[in-house]
Design a protein that fits this description.
heterodimer, A: Amidase signature (AS) enzymes, 15 helices, 12% strand, B: 31% helix
Chain lengths: 490, 96
């Protein structure tokens, strides 16, 4: 039998309901796996063994007593460490929040608790979710279970590595410019960013508020759809939360792509994309065509400026959001003789280099004399991107592109050159700027055995058709298998 | 192009104490990033409204219902310094 830690959410839920295993056994299996893999992978910042086992025992009692059980009852799931968990340290991988214990649960955490989920722990990320490799963590990098010399992507690299390594069945990440989809691609997983506003951001430590969105990282498209449905919905605590009902993720899984129109974005599937990634992309497009989809080549010229617009909008919003870390209410304080000095010393000590870089960039872009030329102009470019997407979606049901420009790169390869790191997100950023849903599905391995992801994008609230196409791609693709990870007991 | 950034002024606005060496490094990196970001200025956007929220939503109000606040002691337990139910900070003005 497959190791319990290797099951999908849907398989594990069925096994629990059929009495073939217990939540305690499932949870022990992933915790055991973590004890073998963490020394080399470092997916977690905190593992809550005690809390996880207590939640698993409670779930088993609910099942034994035939009490009502939740959709995710007894399933061990990991949370990115920028989501507030009451009573459990939450750091966003920053020295600024080392030792911080939140006084409340974020909305997604509350929803998963109510659905019966078991929280294994909090996963590593680039500090405050700023980065594409998880090397910017103040607590050390995470490594890719497919090849320990390479990065897992980022910023949700710990959430991706945990699911790939078997130390969680699924996880939640957050995506501001590709931070769920790019690590999913690099770690051979399904990763999904919902339409902006569908999932509450209450209790998500904010990076760029008009772009941030929480979503699932899973081993199957169906798992992603189930987990997405569990966290989507209106929340009065988030003023940007969409007031209507969230579209179904699971409704059209298995419906195929016959008659659907699939648009290939020329600007995102040519120049700057690795040859092997392009070959896997083209082969998947061919398979979709053979399965009955109509393929339309499309040009979205303003996506070429999306990266530039993003690197004005995201830092500007980050500089405003991170102003709250000033040594007064929570986190680090470095003493100074005046409040100003205390704040300046605290922020210099608490933030890492990439965070400081983005705060400075954002402060500059918002400062007197530059606001309209930079931030204002970037917001107008954002409108142009949305208009172009809207025109494209009059012709097609979904758009597709590679997820990341190349498979996983080696640790240290891009840390000295911020711009080359930023290029990692060139295919994923347009959907954050437009607020549209997008997801990555694994479609193959490179010659050196590293996963390659395929991105499906859909119009706002187009989750149902996006999952439909993603499930078809999953069914049409060869199974990439699981990473072979040499482990030593720690 | 304003590539010559007054980094000391920006750092002061951002309340981050930086050494001369750090300022020089950040100034150079920001210049490269801004040079790339300036591509947005090449696009004609006359008459295009700015987007701050991608969905067409107006003000969202929640029902005016009193609900429990966070526990004050639990919140203050995370403060670097707190006294008598307040956050405590150093003087905001010089003593002179």
């Amino acid at each position: 039998m497959t190791e319990l830690s290797e099951l999908t959410l849907v398989e594990a839920a069925a096994a629990l309901r059929a009495g073939e295993c217990t939540s305690v056994a499932l949870t022990e299996s992933v915790l055991h796996r973590a004890s073998l893999t963490e020394a080399s992978v470092h997916a977690y910042l905190t593992i809550d063994r005690q809390g996880a086992m207590a939640a698993a025992e409670a779930s088993d009692r609910r099942i034994a007593d035939e009490k009502p059980i939740g959709l995710l009852d007894g399933l061990p799931i990991a949370l990115k460490d920028n989501m507030m968990t009451r009573g459990i340290e939450t750091t966003a991988s920053s020295k600024m929040l080392s030792g911080y214990i939140p006084p409340y649960d974020g909305t997604v955490v509350k929803l998963l608790r109510e659905a019966g989920a078991v929280f294994v722990g909090k996963t590593n990320l680039d500090e405050f979710a700023m980065g594409s490799s998880t090397e910017n963590s103040a607590f050390g990098p995470t490594r890719n279970p497919w090849n320990l010399d390479t990065v897992p992507g980022g910023s949700s690299g710990g959430s991706a590595a945990a699911v790939a390594a078997g130390s969680a069945l699924a996880s939640l990440g957050s995506d501001t410019g590709g931070s769920i989809r790019q690590p999913a691609a690099l770690c051979g997983l399904v990763g999904m960013k919902p339409t902006y506003g569908l999932v509450s951001r209450y209790g998500l430590i904010a990076f760029a508020s008009s772009l941030d969105q929480i979503g699932p990282l899973t081993r199957s498209v169906q798992d992603a759809a189930v987990l997405y449905e569990a966290i989507a919905g209106h929340d009065p605590h988030d003023a940007t939360s969409f007031p209507g009902p969230a579209p179904s993720g699971t409704e059209r899984l298995g419906a195929g792509v016959e008659g659907l129109r699939v648009g290939v974005v020329n600007e995102l599937s040519g120049e700057g994309i690795d040859d092997e990634v392009l070959a896997a992309f083209r082969s998947t497009v061919d398979r979709l065509a053979n399965a009955g989809a109509e393929i339309v080549e499309l040009s979205l010229p303003s996506t070429a400026t999306a990266l530039s617009a993003y690197y004005l909008i995201a830092p500007a919003e980050c500089s405003a959001n991170l102003a709250r870390f000033d040594g007064v209410r929570y986190g680090l304080r470095v003493e100074g003789s005046t409040v100003d000095e205390m704040m300046s010393l605290t922020r210099a000590e608490g933030f890492g280099a990439e965070v400081i870089r983005r705060i400075l960039l954002g402060t500059y872009a918002l400062s007197a004399g530059y606001y309209d030329a930079f931030y204002g102009q970037a917001q107008r470019v954002r409108t142009l991107i949305i208009q172009e997407f809207a025109a494209a979606y009059e012709q097609v049901d979904v758009l597709v592109s590679p997820t990341a420009p190349a498979p996983a790169f080696e640790l240290g390869a891009k840390t000295q050159d911020p711009l080359s790191m930023y290029m990692q997100d060139v295919c994923t950023i347009p959907s954050n700027l437009s607020g549209h849903p997008a997801m990555s599905v694994p479609v193959g391995l490179s010659a050196s055995g590293l996963p390659i992801g395929f991105q499906v994008m859909a119009p706002a609230l187009g989750e149902t058709v996006m999952f439909q196409v993603a499930a078809a791609i999953e069914a049409l693709s060869d199974d990439i298998g699981r990473p072979v990870l040499e482990v030593v007991a720690s | 192009m304003p590539i010559d950034i007054d980094i000391a002024h920006v750092a002061k606005l951002a309340r981050i104490e930086l050494s001369e060496q750090e300022m020089a490094a950040y100034r150079a990196q920001l210049a490269v990033i801004l040079d790339h970001a300036a591509k947005v200025q090449a696009l004609p956007t006359e008459g295009v409204p700015p987007t701050s929220h991608p969905l067409d939503m107006v003000n969202a109000f929640r029902d005016d219902v009193v609900t429990p606040s966070l526990d004050r002691d639990e919140v203050l337990s995370q403060a670097p310094d707190a006294t008598d139910g307040f956050f405590r900070v150093p003087p905001s003005l010089d003593n002179e």
